[in-house]
């Protein structure tokens, strides 16, 4: 994919808040571009502890003003997979995986396909959200091992 060709138009629509490996967030505090509102523990992925770090803009906390990634060389698997077109959610609205521009008709088909798939997946999203809430409720009951917290204006994320 050739993201730089489409960044001004797409404004990194693919870089929304999604689960990130805890160690990526912890070890790259100095590269955070937009301070997360909070950081929550999320279900592990392939045995790797994950967290959610939503920002006020709902974009990834590592997305720079020029729509490039501050942790590009260390970006998580989900980011590396984007554009492989293995499913509609990993397909770029603006280009095919070979870098060729997607026609407006193809864009509309892709968006419609994603909307239909999203409708079918609502129960999985609900379950994921419930898992996040449950995990973080357990944290607030004194079980803080491994949970990420945000410590104020210093923009410092640390594992408790």
Describe the model.
This protein starts with 6 loop residues before the first helix and ends with a strand. Strand 4 and strand 5 (156-159) form a beta hairpin. Residues 142-160 have low confidence and may be disordered. With 160 residues, it is an alpha+beta fold. It has a three-stranded antiparallel beta sheet with strand order 1-3-2. It has one domain. Helices cover 32% and strands 13% of the residues.
List its salient traits.
disordered C terminus, 4 helices, two-stranded antiparallel sheet, single chain, alpha+beta
Question: What are the SSEs and their pairings?
Answer:
Blueprint: H1 7-10, E1 20-21, H2 22-27, E2 40-45, E3 48-52, H3 77-81, H4 104-140, E4 148-151, E5 156-159
Antiparallel strand pairs: 1-3, 2-3, 4-5
Would you summarize the structure shown here?
By secondary structure, the protein is of the alpha+beta class. 32% of the residues lie in helices and 13% in strands. It has one domain.
Strand content: 5-15%
What is the string of helix and strand elements?
HEHEEHHEE
Distance between the termini: 38 Å
Compute the number of structural domains: 1
Helical residue percent band: 25-40%
Low-confidence stretches: 142-160
Number of strands: 5
Strand order of the largest sheet: 1-3-2
Alpha-beta classification: alpha+beta
* Count of individual helical segments: 4
Q: How much is the average pLDDT?
A: 81
Shape: globular
Largest sheet: 3 strands, antiparallel
- Using only CA atoms, what is the Rg? 17 Å
């Amino acid at each position: 994919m050739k993201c730089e060709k489409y960044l001004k138009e797409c404004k990194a629509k693919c870089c929304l808040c999604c689960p990130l490996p805890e160690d990526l967030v912890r070890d790259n505090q100095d590269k955070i571009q937009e301070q997360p509102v909070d950081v929550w523990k999320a279900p592990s992925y392939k045995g790797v502890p994950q967290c959610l770090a939503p920002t006020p803009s709902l974009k990834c906390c590592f997305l720079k003003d020029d729509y490039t990634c501050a942790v590009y060389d260390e970006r998580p698997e989900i980011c590396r997979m984007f554009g492989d077109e293995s499913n509609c959610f990993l397909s770029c609205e603006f280009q095919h995986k070979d870098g060729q521009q997607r026609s407006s008709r193809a864009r509309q088909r892709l968006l419609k396909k994603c909307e239909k798939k999203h409708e079918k997946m609502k129960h999985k999203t609900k379950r994921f959200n419930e898992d996040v809430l449950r995990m973080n409720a357990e944290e607030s009951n004194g079980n803080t091992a491994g949970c990420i917290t945000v410590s104020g204006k210093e923009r410092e994320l640390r594992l408790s």
